[in-house]
Amino acid sequence: MNFTDALFKDIGIDLGTANSRVYLKGAGLAVNEPTVAAINSKTSQILAVGDEAKRMLGRTPSHIQVIRPLTNGVVSDFDMAQELLRGLLKQVNGFAIFGFRRGVVAIPHNLTEVERKSVEDAVISAGCSRVYLVESPAAAALGAGLPIMSPMASLIVDIGGGTTDIAVISMGGTVVSKTLKVAGDKMNDDIVRFVRDEFKLAIGEATAEEAKVAISSAIPTDDKLEYSVRGRDLSTGLPREVVLKNIHLRTAIARSVKSIVESVHEVIEQTPPELAG
User: Fold this and answer.
1) 147-179+261-276: which CATH architecture?
2) Cβ–Cβ contacts within 10 Å for residue 100, how many?
3) I need a surface site. Which of 17, 33, 143, 241 has the fewest CB within 10 A?
């Protein structure tokens, strides 16, 4: 390692709607935390970011707000996004004495120039001297080890928190692509709604996500998985627990899964025949 590399580090940032990750060149994954920030609305003071902020969700006084600064992959609250990035980068600052030299950021492929600029500005404000934007499908393909520079086509389906990016990549470029505002967050909402309608029980988004990660599947499986959730009984207002089965969650997210599958078919149908084979 030369002297400059010891003072400055190159980083990779996956700034997602639900979760954000920071990778350090030569060190690997350094941070993987929720893309949320907690703020005191009375003083505008940032109280926490990432995991610490998410733990405050639904458990704080009304003047403590937990905010998601990204919506559908786009920076919707620049100040909060900047503070979030600063907080995440602060966790890895010990790896670089004077900060970060270059940052490579994965972004949805359909962002406008204004939206791209907002991401770039947020990362620079958080401490990076130079920023390079890479579209998420290409970043996902590279991470999966796919030969995106070859003439052979690679189909990428990147299901994030706010969006699903679908793309066919060949020779280093995107041939056909589509972004769908149906992804992990929408599936969480589906589960919340299903539990409310089916069991007359109100649960939070965090509980729905835990159940989704634990036992959900897009297709039938032989595993008879179950997961207990606690919530508020809509009739009595008292706490109550129900046991969810994987078929419940599969039913809950079926419409969202169908939307993604149909969009994948659309992208494949739009792919030039010489690549589709």
Assistant:
1) 2-Layer Sandwich (3.30)
2) 25
3) 241
Q: Does position 95 have pLDDT exceeding 60, yes or no?
A: no
Confidence of residue 206 (pLDDT cuts 50, 70, 90): confident
| Tokens read off for 145 | 């080890």
Buried b (16+ CB within 10 A) or exposed e, 223-235: eeeebebebeeee
Q: Are 70 and 49 spatial neighbours (Cβ–Cβ below 8 Å)?
A: no
> pTM of the full predicted structure?
0.78
Domain range annotation of the chain: 3-140, 147-179+261-276, 184-255
List Cβ neighbours of 5 (8 Å cut-off, separation of 6 or more): none
| Partners of 231 in beta bridges | 240
Whether 234 contacts 196, CB under 8 Å: yes
Specify the CATH number of the domain 184-255. Answer: 3.90.640.10
Residues facing 71 on adjacent strands:
74
